[in-house]
Amino acid sequence: MWTVLPLLLMAAPAGPAPEIVVLPLFTTDALGPQSLEAWKVIAGELAKAKKKLKAQTSLQKKQHDFLIGPVREQARDCGEKLACLAEIGTALGANILVVGKLDENGIGLRAIDVASANAIAEGGSSPTLAKQAVKKQAIAATKSLVQALAAQQKKVKNTGKTGSTGPVAEAPPPPPPAETTGAAPILALGKLVIGKDQLAGVTKVNVDGEVVLFGGDGTITWSGAPGSHRVRAERADGNSVSKELVLEPGETKFISLEFPIVAPPAAVAVAEDDAVTGKWWFWTSLGVAVAAGSATAILLLGGEKGGPQLPDSTGTIRGTY
Predict the structure, then answer these.
(1) What is each CA distance from 62 to 19, 21, 43, 45, 272, in whole angstroms?
(2) CB 226 within 8 A of CB 186
């Protein structure tokens, strides 16, 4: 978890309400799906608090595909370098960029002023919640960050009125465009498409651990960062298939799921030698029955008390019944 840094006191810029954008959380691969869940919760909680923070979150929804795709990849390369993260915020059009991480101790969040590339507030979930559901941790961490941001705004406002701590520093001019500072350009998204004919019996599809919804036409379309991705599909019969693929910038790739063919259970065939018609005594008895007539055939079927013997030299059939 991050340690809390001193808040930077800045004059609130005049004009439209600042835009807050939340990046997907840093985490290990094992916690990947949970980090995406936490990210969505945090973005939703900040949207609820936008009046309190006198901010807006409209870019969060507009930039969703970029945030979960190329932006997430570039943020991983930045790590905790604030200047690098601020360049991403500039490319997104954000005024305040919220980054965070999820680990075994919980969720930690940091708000970065994009113009100055400085951390202005931090918050996090309590270690006592580390074993709780990730949604509960995300809500607690967001509330903590909102309180820190609100406290900063109040302190800036009071300082500006009283001047008790001297003049409030003016916000520095925005940094040059990303292409002149060496920041890697944000790559065009790629697209994965699974046709309706590939989805017969499929109940669930996820890309890199994130569940993808079916479209209204029965197909699935996912947009994301160029690079390696894993697609996994599950059918109602319990069978599943996973595919590793590489997506190029701007590429639309159609995926064939290629579920393994499951052979139907083989019918239990009765071997001719095991069938009653394959027994030597069946045909011998049948021949005797035909020669001796129907009454004899009935006797040949046997009974509890015995059966006939073969005809003697006079043609007489004897037996015990």
Answers:
(1) 12, 10, 13, 17, 72
(2) no
**How far is it, in rounded angstroms, from Cα 320 to Cα 89?**
105
The predicted structure's pLDDT at residue 98: 95
Q: Which amino acid would we find at residue 222?
A: W
**What does pTM read for this prediction?**
0.52
Question: Which amino acid is residue 319, in one-letter code?
Answer: G
**Which residue ranges of the chain lie beneath pLDDT 50?**
1-14, 161-185, 294-301, 303-304, 321
**241, β-bridge pairs:** 233
Burial of 56 from C-beta contacts in 10 A (0-12 / 13-18 / 19+): middle
Q: Which two tokens stand for residue 182?
A: 């060496």
φ, ψ of residue 119 to 5 degrees: the values are -75, 130
Q: Supply angle C-alpha 6, 11, 13, rounded to 5.
A: 130
pLDDT value of position 188? 64
Phi/psi-derived region of residue 250, left when phi > 0, alpha when psi is between -120 and 50, beta in every other case? left
Residue 172 sits at the vertex; the CA angle it makes with 171 and 176, to the nearest 5 degrees, is: 135
What token pair was written down for 1? Answer: 């978890």
- What is the per-residue pLDDT for 155? 76
CB neighbour list of residue 220: distance below 8 Å, 6 or more residues apart: 192, 193, 194, 199, 205, 212, 213, 214
Region at 192 (left for phi over 0; alpha for psi -120 to 50; beta for the rest): beta
